Amino acid sequence: MTIRDVLEIVDGKVLTGEKYLDTTVQTACGSDLMSDVLAFVKESAVLITGLINPHVVRTSEMLDITCIVFSRGKQPSEEILEMADEIGITIISSPLTTYTACGELYMRGLPGSKPKAVKTAEGA
């Protein structure tokens, strides 16, 4: 699936990063907790969130998330859009709730991320 497909499925509007719409995405994650995003997301992912602050972009940069969908029609600040533009992340605003956006993407074949392997004290 491409970011362009995501845009259509979530009935979204591109706020920045239109030149990346043909980029392929592999998985999606819906969360407002960046600690959960860090635990579950792999690269080439779409993040669906209602949280609008610079930490969302910084977390996405660390994980090679290629697209952030802000749910419930939320509009990020110019600072957030500039940060995303500088690092090549597409930002989409969708009128859908986080739950509905995730469900629509899942129904059309975009899987969720699975938990990353956790190493135990025994080295397993």
Describe the structure in your own words:
There is one protein chain. With 124 residues, this protein is an alpha/beta fold. The protein has a single domain (3-107), classed as Udp-n-acetylmuramoylalanyl-d-glutamate--2,6- Diaminopimelate Ligase, Chain: A, domain 1 (3-Layer(aba) Sandwich), CATH 3.40.1390.20. The protein contains 5 helices and 5 strands; from the N terminus they run αββαβαβαβα. Strands 1-5-4-3-2 form a 5-stranded mixed β-sheet, sandwiched between helices. Strand 2 (27-30), helix 2 and strand 3 (45-49) form a beta-alpha-beta unit. The longest helix is centred in the middle third of the chain and has 10 residues, at 54-63. The radius of gyration is 14 Å and the shape is globular. The termini are far apart. The mean pLDDT is 90.
Relevant terms:
5 strands, alpha/beta, Udp-n-acetylmuramoylalanyl-d-glutamate--2,6- Diaminopimelate Ligase, Chain: A, domain 1, five-stranded mixed beta sheet, 124 residues, single chain
Report the major sheet: 5 strands, mixed
* Overall mean confidence score, pLDDT: 90
Structural class: alpha/beta
Order of helices and strands: HEEHEHEHEH
Termini, distance in Å?
A: 34 Å
Shape: globular
Share of β-strand residues: 15-25%
Separate helix tally = 5
Strand order of the largest sheet: 1-5-4-3-2
Produce a short descriptive summary:
This protein has five helices and five strands, in the order αββαβαβαβα.
Topology:
Elements: H1 3-9, E1 13-16, E2 27-30, H2 34-40, E3 45-49, H3 54-63, E4 67-70, H4 78-87, E5 90-93, H5 98-107
Parallel strand pairs: 2-3, 3-4, 4-5
Antiparallel strand pairs: 1-5
Helix pairs in contact: 3-4
